[in-house]
Amino acid sequence: MSTVYDCDSPDGRSAGLSRAASSLRGGGLVVLPTDTVYGIGADAFDPEAVRALLSAKGRGPDMPVPVLVGSWNTVDGLVMSVPRQARALIEAFWPGGLSLVLPQAPSLSWDLGETRGTVNLRMPLHPVALDLLREVGPMAVSSANTTGNPPAATVEQAREQLGEAVPVYLDGGPSGEPVASTIVDLTGDQPRVLREGAVGRDELAAELGVELPVE
């Protein structure tokens, strides 16, 4: 049976984070608040848990799962290299609503779906998410909704859609306006905005010193 933990209460937050960490280490799933929308997460290095995440959402490996990290430094161990443009964007917008697609480190033994050798990384600006990430390490996290339904802005909305497929729900209150992160692809010669969201195209262009074409 799934359990909801009130993370606005110190006792609830402590108990919830402990139970969430235990669930993740055992191959289970967790719903957690982020600064954009609620997410459903698994241990990024547990392929079976990632498959369970995709199954809970009702989608396949053709839509790979992004990875959330708890610090800037974590990125160095996950990608082939961190280019200058990535460093600039990380320093300007992390933690926050910006996801970066980079070539993954070839030594990593994970299966996030059909990533074609890349990884989508973000550091969220939410204390509960950051506490959990710093406890358990990188997590594969997708929006806490089933395919075809809107992302969850509250833990109740997430539980209505995902139900008993997730044993632990961390309630951090409403997420506010449910705006997804902006996704920037840095795997090619020029940065590409794959999805516009929380960070505006003009902000990105100003930080990078380049024009970002609309695709």
UniProtKB/TrEMBL annotation:
Any single GO CC term annotated in Swiss-Prot or TrEMBL for this entry: cytoplasm
Superkingdom as given in the UniProt entry: Bacteria
PANTHER family membership: SUA5, THREONYLCARBAMOYL-AMP SYNTHASE
Family membership noted in the UniProt record: Belongs to the SUA5 family.
Reactions accelerated catalytically: L-threonine + hydrogencarbonate + ATP = L-threonylcarbamoyladenylate + diphosphate + H2O
Single biological process term from Gene Ontology: tRNA processing
YrdC-like domain ranges (all copies): 14-199
Keyword terms, alphabetized: ATP-binding, Cytoplasm, Nucleotide-binding, Nucleotidyltransferase, Transferase, tRNA processing
Pfam families registered for this protein in UniProt: Sua5_yciO_yrdC
Annotated PROSITE patterns: YRDC
Keyword tRNA processing belongs to the record: yes
Subcellular location(s) per record: Cytoplasm
EC number: 2.7.7.87
GO molecular function list: ATP binding; double-stranded RNA binding; L-threonylcarbamoyladenylate synthase; tRNA binding
Predominant location category: cytoplasm
EC class: transferase
Protein name as it appears in the record: L-threonylcarbamoyladenylate synthase
Taxonomic lineage from the root: Bacteria, Bacillati, Actinomycetota, Actinomycetes, Actinopolysporales
